[in-house]
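ARCHIVE CARD
CATEGORY: sequence design from structure
SOURCE FIELD: tokenized fold
FIELD CONTENT:
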């Protein structure tokens, strides 16, 4: 795909503020093992299973789909998913997840980003996962003049990468709170973070063409963040695998696509029209419209409940 030049982008275009993230779809090597992990360790429920594909979630809509292909393998150093982020409705639910992970002795990394509290882990096939809760009352973070800046609610500078106060979080749980309870129906996909080949073409695509709002770009950090409606970020982009990283080969485990959920048909049509006008290939499918960014990361443009 030819990178989009800034001169051809209508920068005044803005994606609908009610746009949100939806289902993430992986190619997997072992479907049974992955289903077991996402049910018993993460806390998602199995919605359905048909042949080599399964859908999991916490409410009505799938948050994750898994498709098994024979002979696939993990390829390092390629573009694709850095992590997908499961957003919980409150700190108690994050405490439940942490309690479950600790009880299972599953490796994870609780982190205090000030504006969010989170933990990071990987599934058995190396897909990155963030599980978090928004805590804007605790402070803010942003990229300012190319630097990541975090301040707590009193205005004190913080690293934004401090270890989470796990003891304080686990105090949210009471004696009757079951660690094995599944994630609640209000759970969503909060954001996705992608490895890209080059930062500028990726920013031009997501911000300039699709109309996501700028939440910070830093060439020095090799990272950028964009969102709809002013959220801290719906999509993160980074070149941490090195500029020019290639797309993964077809026989790779990992990201097939992530989903951008548009609020109505007119907005979906508007975005598809912009992609077509820019010469970006689109493929209508039953669930929506498939396309790819300049680094070949797949995305599905869809309507709610798709």
């Amino acid at each position: 795909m030819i990178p989009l030049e800034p001169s051809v982008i209508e920068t005044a275009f803005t994606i609908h503020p009610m746009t949100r993230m939806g289902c993430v779809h992986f190619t997997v090597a072992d479907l049974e093992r992955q289903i077991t992990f996402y049910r018993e360790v993460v806390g998602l429920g199995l919605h359905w299973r048909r042949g080599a594909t399964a859908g999991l979630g916490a409410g009505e809509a799938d948050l994750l789909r898994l498709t098994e292909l024979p002979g696939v393998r993990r390829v390092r150093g390629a573009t694709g998913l850095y992590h997908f982020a499961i957003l919980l409705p409150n700190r108690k639910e994050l405490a439940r997840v942490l309690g479950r992970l600790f009880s299972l002795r599953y490796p994870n990394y609780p982190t205090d980003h000030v504006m969010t509290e989170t933990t990071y882990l990987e599934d058995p096939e190396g897909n990155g996962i963030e599980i978090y809760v928004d805590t804007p009352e605790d402070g803010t973070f942003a990229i300012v003049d190319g630097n990541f800046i975090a301040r707590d609610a009193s205005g004190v500078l913080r690293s934004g990468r401090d270890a989470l106060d796990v003891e304080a979080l686990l105090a949210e749980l009471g004696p009757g709170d079951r660690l094995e309870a599944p994630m609640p129906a209000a759970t969503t996909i909060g954001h996705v973070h992608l490895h890209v080949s080059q930062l500028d073409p990726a920013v031009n695509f997501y911000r300039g063409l699709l109309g996501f709002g700028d939440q910070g770009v830093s060439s020095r950090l090799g990272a950028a963040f964009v969102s709809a409606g002013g959220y801290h970020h719906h999509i993160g982009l980074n070149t941490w695998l090195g500029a020019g990283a290639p797309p993964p080969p077809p026989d790779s485990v990992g990201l097939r696509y992530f989903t951008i959920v548009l609020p109505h048909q007119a907005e979906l049509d508007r975005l598809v029209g912009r992609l077509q006008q820019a010469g970006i290939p689109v493929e209508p499918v039953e669930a929506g419209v498939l396309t790819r960014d300049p680094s070949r990361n797949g995305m599905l443009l869809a309507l709610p409940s798709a």
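CARD ANNOTATION: The chain has one domain: 17-302. The chain has a mean pLDDT of 94.
SHELF: design records, drawer C
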